[in-house]
Design a protein that fits this description.
- By secondary structure, the chain is α+β, with helices and mostly antiparallel strands.
- It contains 4 helices and 5 strands, in the order E-H-H-H-H-E-E-E-E.
- The protein has a 5-stranded antiparallel beta sheet with strand order 1-3-4-5-2, with helices on one face.
- A hairpin with a 4-residue loop joins strand 3 and strand 4.
- The radius of gyration is 16 Å and the shape is elongated.
C-alpha cells in the first residue's frame, strides 16, 4: 500500500503503477446520513425514520448509496491520488445495505494508466466490517500534474 501524499499535493501519474492499492476506513454515523439528506434533499424515510425502516426488508435505517460514493470521492480528492485530482467518472453497483455504525473499508486499486491523457482508471470497492462487499465500481480520474 502506498502512503498518501501531503495535503499540499497528491500523487502524480508517474508515481502510480498498475496494481497499486490504497485503503481507507470510515464509520457510517447517523450524523453523516442526516447531513447527506440535508445536502441532497433525499429525505426518503428508509434513511431517516427508524420506525418506517423497521417495516422494510432492511428492518433498520440504511445509508444512502450515494453517501458511499461521496466517501469514495473524498478519498480520491484528498488522499489517493489526492489533492489536485479531478474525478471524471464513476460506475457503481450497490450490493448490500450499509447501516448506521458500519465500518467501511474503501479499497482503491489502479487498473490502467493512460499517460498521454494523464488518466488513471481505478477499481473502487467498499467492504463492511463483516468482510462483505457493499459497493463496487470503477473511477476514472486525472491525477495532479
Amino acid at each position: 500500500m502506498l502512503e498518501a501524499r501531503s495535503a499540499a499535493r497528491g500523487i502524480t501519474l508517474d508515481l502510480l503503477s498498475i496494481g497499486q492499492e490504497y485503503e481507507s476506513k470510515t464509520t457510517i454515523t447517523q450524523e453523516m446520513i442526516e447531513d447527506f439528506a440535508r445536502a441532497t434533499g433525499d429525505n426518503n424515510p428508509i434513511h431517516l425514520n427508524e420506525e418506517y425502516a423497521k417495516g422494510t426488508i432492511f428492518k433498520s435505517r440504511v445509508a444512502h448509496g450515494m453517501l458511499q460514493a461521496g466517501i469514495i470521492s473524498g478519498v480520491l480528492g484528498t488522499r489517493f491520488p489526492g489533492v489536485g485530482t479531478i474525478y471524471l467518472s464513476q460506475t457503481l453497483k450497490f450490493l448490500k445495505p450499509v447501516f448506521i455504525g458500519d465500518q467501511l473499508t474503501i479499497r482503491l486499486k489502479v487498473l490502467e494508466l493512460i499517460k498521454e491523457k494523464n488518466r488513471a482508471r481505478l477499481e473502487t470497492v467498499c467492504i463492511n466490517q463483516k468482510g462483505e462487499t457493499v459497493v463496487t465500481g470503477e473511477a476514472m480520474v486525472m491525477p495532479p500534474a
